[in-house]
Amino acid sequence: MSTTKTHRPPLDFKGAAEYLGRSERWVRRAVAERRLTYLKMGKFVAFDPDDLDAYIEANKVEAVD
Asked: Which residues pair with 46 in a beta bridge?
């Protein structure tokens, strides 16, 4: 059984905002504040969906019984 990872293309600001359920403005602010990991390709900024998943996991607050 192979555990190959499926490649997901990078997202732009709009795609990252939709993925996170936030506004594009929030994503731009998070980048400016270095709260989100992003890819810088020349003058373009993109987001790896795996990095966004890691951000979500890192900010998860577990419920208390």
From this structure: 39
Tens digits of residue pLDDT in 8-64: 999 999 999 999 999 999 999 999 999 999 999 899 999 999 999 999 999 999 999
Tell me the C-alpha to C-alpha distance, in Å, between residue 65 and each of 27, 61, 62: 33, 13, 10
Measure the CA–CA gap between 3 and 23, rounded to whole angstroms.
34
Q: What are phi and psi of 56, to 5 degrees?
A: -60, -45
Q: What is the DSSP letter of 6?
A: P
Distance CA 65, CA 53 (A): 25
